[in-house]
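sorry for the late reply, my laptop died twice this morning and i had to redo everyting from scratch. anyway the thing you sent over, i finally got around to it. pasting the sequence first so we're on the same page, its 313 residues, then the predicted structure underneath. double check i copied it right bc i was rushing
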Amino acid sequence: MKKIGILFGQERTFPPALIERINSKNVDGITAEAVSIDKVVQAQSAGYAVIIDRISQDVPFYRAFLKNAAISGTAVINNPFWWSADEKFFNNALAENIGVPVPKTVLLPSKDHPDDTTAESFSNLSFPLDWEGIFQYVGFPAFMKPYAGGGWKNVYKLDSADDFFRAYNETGQLVMMLQEAIDFESYFRCYCIGGKYVRVMHYEPRNPFHLRYVADFNISQEMHQLLEEYVLRINQALGYDFNTVELAIRDGVPYAIDFCNPAPDADYHSVGQENFDWVVETAANYAIERAQAQEDGKDNLTWGSFVKQAVQQ
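ok and here's the structure:
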């Protein structure tokens, strides 16, 4: 019997619905359950053919557990090695490399020195930075946000250099990035599962949180297809099995705004019934597909084209 495990935290709608849906399909030799961990021994199997990870971004213990599970052949969704290495600023650089438009973005050093460092630790960093050049490149209005992480934490909307420095002084040891604000006509949040299944969801980030999926933008079929193409292109390059891509359309051009969301919101109460049903059904089918293909003792992880091309060189 091959087991599919769901590793999750405070979620209470998506994980049980996904487990129930997988089991309701009655696929011979496959069952699903919440992951149970009583000990983690190096190089020992976790007992799961597939684990869908919804929480290790917040729990380092879980991330280490998943890497250990992967060594024995567990297909971890998403690849815990890549997820550990990835961040939003690199995402933007990769998007430019594969021809997906993104806002102008600059990486900023933390305002305060990281622990166990001094001014001498930054011998290679100019002081002051070329703030004028940075502001000219990005322009205002702009957003400043952490270069990694998510959930709209520590995000600032800035209209001037004075706004920037006031906000920057509050960021402590966070590494931030300054990003061009896209004055969009329409906005979409798109699930991507397995690097091949896409759900384009109309989304209004300016609405209160509980109303953000209550939106209806009028776009052509050609634009819809372009959104899907960009979503697939990004996720196949990154190698994410489960992710969301946010796209803002300005003057007929879709800009990828945020696409490092490997544990995206899938709660019934926020995404709504139709989106919830789609993500549960699609994730269930994909998890079963991965379980059927899984082989013990082998690398059953997904690696994106960026990494695979580097290895082949």
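Residues 193 and 282 are 7 Å apart (CA to CA).
thats about all i looked at so far, will dig more tmrw
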